[in-house]
Design a protein that fits this description.
The complex is a heterodimer of chains A (133) and B (293). Chain A is mostly helical and 133 residues long. Chain A has helices spanning 2-29, 37-53, 55-58, 60-78, 82-131. Chain A has 2 domains: 1-30; 34-131. Chain A has 5 helices and no strands. A 5-stranded mixed sheet of chain B has the order 1-2-5-3-4. The longest helix of chain B is centred in the middle third of the chain and has 85 residues, at 81-165. Chain B is an alpha+beta fold and 293 residues long. The chains are: A mainly alpha (133), B alpha+beta (293). Chain A binds chain B through residues 9-11, 13-14, 17-18, 20-21, 24-25, 28-29, 84, 87, 90-91, 94-95, 97-98, 101-102, 104-105, 108-109, 111-112, 115-116, 118-119, 122-123, 126-127, 129-130, 133, and chain B through 8-9, 12-13, 16-17, 19-21, 23-24, 27-28, 79, 82-83, 86, 89-90, 93-94, 96-97, 100-101, 103-104, 107-108, 110-111, 114-115, 117-118, 121-122, 125, 128-129, 132-133, 136.
């Protein structure tokens, strides 16, 4: 009995040290579990901008993925995994920005193609008019 | 030393702390490596930076992508794989955004060029049109000039030929008068010497195949009317047969005897009668050709 008592007393500092180690782990690897509102808002704004720019037409796959990531972020918030939520939100934002960038590129290219066609058509028209003389 | 090892509690504590530190290291920093996919995203960025068409066209976006790729390349412990995946995802999209922006900027620069090209091609077309118009005018002028030259040359040549025939131009055409010296008196066959003058006529008809010939025989008033008519016809016929022998199509030749009724001079004198004894070759003016439509 006395022996057991002594051994328990000897374990007490050991337990304290274990608690300290667990605390260390938590501090080292986990961040504060707060809803990543600013990241979520930024993602929503980026999606909205892409949509307005016409990504639905020119970069639909990219826009859809941005929306999927935002949904994943919301799910993570519901599961209180705020780290994952913030990551999904940032991914959603950058993906929406990519949708916007690709939309702009596609539009610019389309304008050029139209212009080229127009110039070709005009040249042909002129040449034909020239041939008829 | 002995004292320390004899204290079980202290020993156990030291062991626990060591294990804790080990656990911490294993949990957060064991064998840190760059996340999976970070090499791929770096390669993609390097490719973009090496593309002379694109690298200079989105410098800010490329800088941002570079920073994101560098973050993605930071070594992480295996337990941090989700963070690594996240960073690689962000870096990849940043590189893609830089690519898209560079492409957009390039397209806009090309558009300026396209606009210039279009303007140039429009100008070219106008120039071509104007040139074509000029060329047409020039061609017409040259054609007209050459036609005029041709006509002038032809007229000149004809005049030369007429002069050679010693003929004169009248309303009926070119009239060549063959004097009676070509014929033995009272006979219709041509003298040998007549051939020279008639050869020039043949040459003229060869060169002007569109002209027809009327051959008229005339006499003075010596002898009977009938015999004069007959003689004039025979003389005309002998000129015709000469021409036919020389290759002139018979269809181009009409011969007729006019007898003594169309004198050109007074029959009272020898000289007058000589002038009246003649064969006239009338080379008709070409009938204007009416082009069939």
């Amino acid at each position: 009995m006395n022996d057991r008592f002594i051994s328990v007393r000897a374990l007490r500092p050991m337990m304290a040290a274990g608690v300290a180690v667990i605390l260390m782990l938590v501090v080292a690897c986990a961040s504060a579990p707060l809803t990543p509102d600013s990241a979520l808002d930024a993602a929503k704004v980026a999606i909205s901008n892409a949509d307005k720019a016409g990504a639905g037409q020119y970069a639909n796959a990219e826009l859809a993925e941005a929306r999927t990531r935002l949904t994943l972020a919301d799910s993570a918030v519901n599961e209180e995994d705020m780290v994952a939520a913030e990551r999904f939100a940032r991914e959603s934002q950058v993906q929406a920005e990519l949708a916007s960038a690709r939309t702009a590129a596609a539009k610019a290219a389309a304008v050029n193609v139209d212009m080229e066609r127009g110039t070709e058509a005009m040249t042909e028209e002129m040449e034909r008019a020239g041939d008829q003389r | 030393m002995n004292n320390l090892f004899r204290n079980h509690a202290s020993y156990a504590m030291a062991l626990t702390v060591a294990a804790g530190v080990g656990l911490t290291l294993a949990g957060c920093a064991t064998a840190p490596v760059s996340p999976v996919g970070s090499a791929d995203v770096r390669a993609k960025l390097t490719q973009l930076q090496a593309d002379p068409e694109l690298a200079t066209r989105a410098p800010a976006a490329i800088r941002e992508a570079e920073a994101a790729v560098r973050t993605a390349e930071e070594p992480l412990a295996k337990t941090d794989a989700p963070l690594g995946t996240h960073r690689v995802y962000i870096a990849d999209r940043k590189v893609e955004i830089a690519m898209a922006q560079a492409a957009t900027n390039r397209a806009e620069e090309q558009r300026v060029k396209l606009g210039e090209e279009r303007e140039r091609s429009r100008l070219d077309a106008r120039t071509r049109e104007a040139d074509a118009a000029h060329a047409e005018v020039d061609a017409t002028r040259v054609a007209a000039a050459s036609a005029a030259t041709q006509a002038a040359l032809q007229a000149e040549e004809l005049q030369r030929q007429i002069d050679a025939l010693q003929a004169k131009e009248t309303e009926r055409g070119i009239v060549l008068t063959l004097g009676d010296v070509l014929f033995t008196s009272g006979r219709a066959d041509l003298k040998v010497g007549a051939a020279g003058n008639l050869d020039r006529l043949v040459a003229f008809l060869d060169q002007n195949p569109d002209r027809r010939v009327v051959i008229e025989g005339h006499t003075d008033n010596v002898g009977s009317d009938d015999s004069n008519l007959g003689l004039s016809q025979r003389r005309a016929d002998s000129v015709q047969s000469f021409l036919v022998q020389r290759g002139i199509a018979p269809g181009r030749i009409i011969s007729s005897g006019k007898g003594e009724h169309q004198p050109v001079a007074d029959n009272q004198s020898d000289g007058g009668r000589q002038q009246n004894r003649r064969v006239e070759v009338i080379i008709e003016n070409p009938t204007p050709v009416v082009k069939s439509m």
